[in-house]
Amino acid sequence: MPDISPRGLTRLAFGGDYNPEQWPESVWQEDVRLMREAGVTMVSVGIFSWALLEPAPGEYDFGWLDRVIDLLHDHGIRVDLGTPTVVPPVWFYRAHPEALPVTAEGVRYEFGSRGAICHSNADYRAAAAAITTALAERYGDHPALAMWHVHNEYGVPVSACYCDSCAAHFRRWLADTYGTVDAVNEAWGTAFWGQRYTGFEQINPPRATPTVGNPGQALDYRRFADATVRENFRAERDLLHRLSPGVPVTTNFMTALSQCDSMDYWAWGREVDLVTNDHYLITDGRRTHVNLAMAADLTRSVAGGAPWLLLEHSTSGVNWQPRNPAKAPGEMARNSLAHVARGSEGAMFFQWRQSRRGAEKFHSAMLPHGGTDTRVWREVVELGASIDTLSALGGTRTEADVAMLWDWQSWWAQNLAWRPSEDHDPRERADSFYEALYDHHLTVDFAHPEADLSAYPLVVVPALYLMTQAAGDNLRRYAENGGTLVVSYFSGIVDEHDAVHEGACPGVLRDVLGLTVEEFSPLLKDERVRLTAPDGPALTGDVWSEFVVPRGAETVWTYADGLTAGRPAVTRHRTGRGTAWYVSTRLDAQGLDAVLARAAGDAGIAPRADLPRDVEVVRRSGTSGTYLFAVNHTAGDTEVPLDTPGTELLTGERAAGRLAVPAGAVRVVRLDG
Ligand code: GLA
Ligand code: ZN
């Protein structure tokens, strides 16, 4: 797994996207002076600069970028250099209009935004290779160069193209994957609705159809689109490795953004030298710091537990949501340091200086329109100092307590059309299970369903609809060997082709859970069911219920009303040396809490009752020591019990017994020993 730091960066990373081309050169001097004042250690440059760097085909103008990089270098600021392949110049599109992507409805996008790319297009691939080569030859051994930032946020705004070159590329991908067209027919179940193909040339992308198309085809197209984009990343990466040896190559992920689910980051994590992530607070009324923690945990997991880097977040509001609130005083620091707690080697932002023109001028920045006499700037300077103070913890790893299974491919499959209920949202279940664990102060590693789980006392499976036989076997082994499993409804239902596993549901989980599900019985909008237990509180479910038939499992909670009244709702199965819980309805937060508390008991995890739920406590450890982070998201002062005394790094004070964490503050204790 990748564990490579930006070259020459001796402190934690602090800085942001720097777009000097939006400003006259006279401003650049002020930029670098203020960067130093803020403690900036690295900036990302040139991500959108193709049109300036190559004003006409094959004609390069590197002068301005030379001056920018030299200036940064003179001021000791490391450079994360972009390959600008997310936004080809207009001359390219006018010469190659077919490089613009086409929607499933057949609409071809126009130039004038960014990310309008058909990743199968040979002319695009050639042009991207040419500009990447030119940049690598010019800057590959520049002393300021810390790492390469390939492209930008692959997968958005266009996750798949449906044009004719993609159709041809898809057929090649199918031939490579399946060998014969009969194997495709079998995998996609084309006997249904008479969709049988007799030659690869007949197969198209899943373009608009009058009603639901073939689910196997749709799922494979998502795999194909992801793999195609990855081919283009790999091509750039390999050029950079060859022409700029020793410099790590990354591309910025967006691991936990539900708006961006098109990349299989388990696969992507294996391709980059350093995992980097962008995270923005989604203001949908939920606790934003919980989603942030989840994103950070997921990113660390994609990096295989190794340190990673938060490459973008915001100092205050963004400008692309329906409503974009500013961050509260102190919130930016809490956000940044919560990422660091969960493994980030620093905190970077979009962007350094707030734009005056273009689509993102109302997006916050490190240096706002109002300049240095602003709250945001003062907080940026303070954060820069805090992050610098923490530099010794670079390279340490976050300690996790439990694992949650996560699989983008299952998510893709589950979101296809014609499911038992449109109210069931797999992402909602993942968020809710995560939140319940967060509220118990448990740090979560995410794991692929086929990964080795033996290190975790508790593994949670929130609605993992697509599960291979290998994944099912993995969970059975895990429980039999002493693990504790909690599985949500609608898990283990289909195989990798969206075909229902043979026999009763939940196919690959029947044995480990000790039950079968005879029928799904989704609930009507706003319908609720009550669950009762002889020795537990009454719980409430909505969205989903099931006719569960225990075949070895004991019933813990029973449906008290609804169509399934009197039948098992939550079950527990002792299997081998372990235990597998099953939850057959959508429990609210209180219900999840009750079930997870029982399961945690089976797993031997003692609940932490000594902390308010919005006080986050996370540990990083490694050769330089053990660091305890306490992030107080509440409006009240609090105290965190300390088993071991230590030195609080942000204040320099000794801490023993109880660590005082003022309202809204972060404390980081380097524990003695
Ligand atoms: C993304 C992009 C940036 C910028 C920010 C704004 O993360 O990578 O270029 O558009 O969003 O939030
Ligand atoms: Zn295309």
Q: Summarize this, please?
A:
By secondary structure, this protein is α/β, with parallel strands linked by helices. It contains 17 helices and 29 strands.
* CATH level-1 class of the domain at 402-602: Alpha Beta
CATH topology of the domain at 402-602: Rossmann fold
CATH architecture assignment name of the domain at 402-602: 3-Layer(aba) Sandwich
What is the number of E strands?
29
Please compute the radius of gyration using only Cα atoms.
Answer: 26 Å
Largest sheet: 10 strands, mixed
Q: How far is it from the N-terminal to the C-terminal residue, by CA?
A: 29 Å
Number of helices in the DSSP assignment:
17
Low-confidence stretches: none
What sort of overall outline do the alpha carbons produce when their principal axes are compared?
globular
Question: Could you say which small molecules are bound to this protein?
Answer: alpha-D-galactopyranose, zinc ion
CATH superfamily of the domain at 402-602: Class I glutamine amidotransferase (GATase) domain
What is the helical fraction, as a range of percent? 25-40%
Mean pLDDT metric? 97
Structural class category: alpha/beta
Q: Enumerate the strands of the largest sheet in spatial order, edge to edge or round the barrel.
A: 12-11-13-14-21-20-19-16-17-22
Beta-strand fraction estimate:
15-25%
